[in-house]
Amino acid sequence: MSIESSAGKVRDVLSRPFRRDGTPTRLHPTSLGREAGKVAGIYVAPVWSKAAVWCRRHIMPVLATVSTFGYVVMGAAVLLWILGAGFGWQEAKVAALLAVVLLLIAVAFVLGTSMYAVTLDLARTRVAVGDNAVGSIAVTNTSSRTVLPAAVELPVGQATALFHLPRMKTAGVHEDLFTIPTTRRAVITVGPVRSVRADPLQLLRRQVLWTEPTDLFVHPRTTSLDGPAAGFLKDLEGLTTKDLTSSDIAFHALRDYVPGDDRRHIHWKTTARTGKLMVRQFEETRRSHMAVALSINTDEYEHDDDFELAISAAASLGRQAIKENRELSVLTQRGPVRCETGRNLLDDMTRLAGHNRRGTSVDLARTLSDAVPNASVMFMVVGSKVTPAQLRSAAASVPPGVRAFAIRCHTGAQSARANIADLTVLTLGDINDLAVVLRKAVA
Predict the structure, then answer these.
(1) Do 179 and 314 lie in a common domain?
(2) Burial 291-320 (b: 16+ CB within 10 A, else e)
(3) What would the pLDDT profile of 214-224 be if each residue is shown by its tens digit?
(4) What is the signed CA dihedral for 337, 341, 347, 348, rounded to 10 degrees?
(5) Which of 57, 195, 376, 392 has the fewest CB atoms inside 10 Å of its own CB, making it the most exposed?
């Protein structure tokens, strides 16, 4: 409804105290209040919106410079002045005046502008656990005058690194190097770089952002695996199975001709020697497709180190499959993991977090069997708390013809191998032993 129409209704109601037939008109308070409220809202809303924008633009930045201690000092100054004026306490007035002087001095520290050109450079944005991430900050004075010493802060995850800038002339450059320790798998947000102006008592604190934040991926530790260590049976098109077929590339044996067989597979030399038709028989091959089920249920792991070991093992298997240009599917209780490239795989592995309310390894194995029914080899990476009965139930969901392995991760344990039905169970105590453990599995 437009302003003119609403205002016109109110004027019409107020200007007609009598009906057209001459009888008095009774003004209904609800109707009149509703129309007046609409008019007030139409006029007041734009003004209120402009006032809110002005406050966000001019008032909020000023209030953001006041620290918690600054608000305490301001409140103490007001309270002491009220007490001094009300009870005649000169000491309280002096203390209030001193607090005001401190605030005014703090204002002098945060006034002024600095013109910097700041460059944040990380040598590598993706490193493995244990590798130091090295970076540098280059600050250039772009103003036409010399700037006084200042401080620059660099947030690194939950911590903050402090760099002191010296007195810099026009076009002067100051560079600092830093190292980020990477003891745990994580995605660390580095930056943004910010310059800080503050008084000695930290009553006021003014900061200016100069760069955008950068994500540093600390990938899980992985180990290199060759083809045999990864347990792959190499073939031109994939893995052979025990199923026999009349048309494939893995030759198995000769058998008597049966009506309906393809004549192209008749072995004529043997037929001439035996006097009866003989045809070639083949072992059915399957395109190599590795499926990895990684359990992120923390209830299945003894310690956090066991969970990290499981992630490292799954990442190592995935990297080997990608290196050999084989099809790969990686699944967790939270869903599939991207594995188009090694970078995507390790990035998603870095973001994985354990959860004790997710499904068990048995549920995960069933989900993987349904999602990747044509897999040729399947790895289930689980914790040491998974019982043999659970592994047997998980193995029961594996489709026939799929070679299945279970890797139980227990930091410090001796490498071992066991069989539960058709499932090969491997115990892994250190990521560097993964290649040895897999060689034993395929021996």
Answers:
(1) no
(2) bbbbbbbbebbeeeebbbbbbbbbbbbbbb
(3) 999 999 999 98
(4) 0
(5) 57
Question: Are the C-beta atoms of 227 and 438 separated by less than 8 Å?
Answer: no
User: Is residue 336 domain-resident?
Assistant: yes
Cis bond upstream, residue 192 (ω within 30)? yes
Q: Are residues 296 and 434 in the same domain?
A: yes
Alpha helices in 16-67 (DSSP H): 29-54, 60-64
- What is the domain extent for residue 27? 3-64
Same domain, 80 and 180: no
Sign of CA dihedral 165, 166, 171, 177: negative
Q: How far apart are CA 284 and CA 109, in angstroms?
A: 80
pLDDT in tens, 101-122: 998 888 888 887 778 889 999 9
* DSSP3 helix / strand / coil % (the chain, rounded to 5): 35, 30, 30
* DSSP H or E run through 205: strand 205-209
Q: Cα separation of 360 and 336, whole Å? A: 16
The confidence score (pLDDT) of residue 111 equals: 80
Residues 6+ apart with CB under 8 A from 117: 139, 140, 142
CATH code for the domain of 408: 3.40.50.410
Among residues 310, 321, 336, the alpha carbon closest in space to that of 407 is found at 310
Query: How many structural domains are present in the chain?
Result: 5
Using 50, 70 and 90 to split pLDDT, how confident is the model at 295? Answer: very high
* pLDDT in the model for residue 233: 37
* Residue 181 and residue 76 share a domain: no
Is position 385 within any domain?
yes
pLDDT number for residue 39: 55
> Do 192 and 264 share a domain, yes or no?
no
Q: Do 163 and 296 fall within a single domain?
A: no
